[in-house]
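Q: Sequence in, structure out?
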Amino acid sequence: MPRAQEPHPEGGPGSPEGRLLKHAADLKRFSRRNFLIGAGAASLLATDMFFTRHVQEERRTNKILVVGDDFAESYYPHASWILFPGYKTSWEEAQWILNSLRGALRQRGQLAAVGYSNEGLDIDQIVIAVIEHVRAKQLTKLYFYGHSFGGMVATQVAARLRELHGVEVEFILLDSSPYSKFDVLDQSWFEGVVVLYEGGFRVPTVLRGGYELGERLLHKDERTWRQVVDQSMEQLSPIAPSSVLIQSESAYIYHFDATRFAGKLGATRMAFIGNPRDGTVNYETARESWAQNFPANMVSNDRRTDDALPAHASPQWNPFVYRPVLQELQDEIFPLPSGGGKMTPF
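A: Exactly. Output:
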């Protein structure tokens, strides 16, 4: 006969009460662990949402982003470079560009960049931001750096400053800047963005990932895989330009007419630099068009950034390619006083 099972002591490990207590203890540990994980995730999400909201609120207006440099501020208290960033360039990347070129640009002026508003590109508001900065800093010499399509913006802003405020820009550098929409190589993609924007459609943030990655893969020959990933992820971060700003930039390029500003820049000198391997902007047509339509202002259009990768307007990725080019241009167009040689902070 099978031996009868001995009863478990009341409250022992094998008793119903014991099993219930063990289950309760396991449940308590499980719940505490998940609670802590959930609380941590919620805190991170709340922090990210707060940071994103703070960034978006801050970038509702145009802002002049000053990159401090003691040497430039000491030697050139009334002169400044102002960078007009290119397509999809965030405030942080604009400052990165200036820091990458600091060694060359600081030889003629202080460093600042225009941070475009996430509400959309508005030239009138940019002109206001620039003139307020000029007056606050008591600047008398302005050097504009037009990064990609920023060359279009720099040209229009220079013409407006002269017309409305009597302020003449000394120099506009066009870094791979298209002269018109016809210099943009991917016309079908470009026109599609503009049609959607002017039809009232705004690209949702959730679609940005595939959109950004696809665009960079299209020009993979200009980038390393690391740059493809880095640039795509940057456009998905809270600091990235808004979809509205990007679409308004596309519309600006599409409708830009440089002939409106030809003959309206006074004594402003201009120079075009670029890369014949550029897969975004047609180097030859852009270079020739700027030179032909601004003959009184264009002083140089033959300096190239051949070894840059990506090939299109990439000083932040290739400072050692860009710095010598910029230094040569400045020495040729704005030579420093003879006798003391180049000034250095050392």
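The first strand starts at residue 63 and ends at 67.
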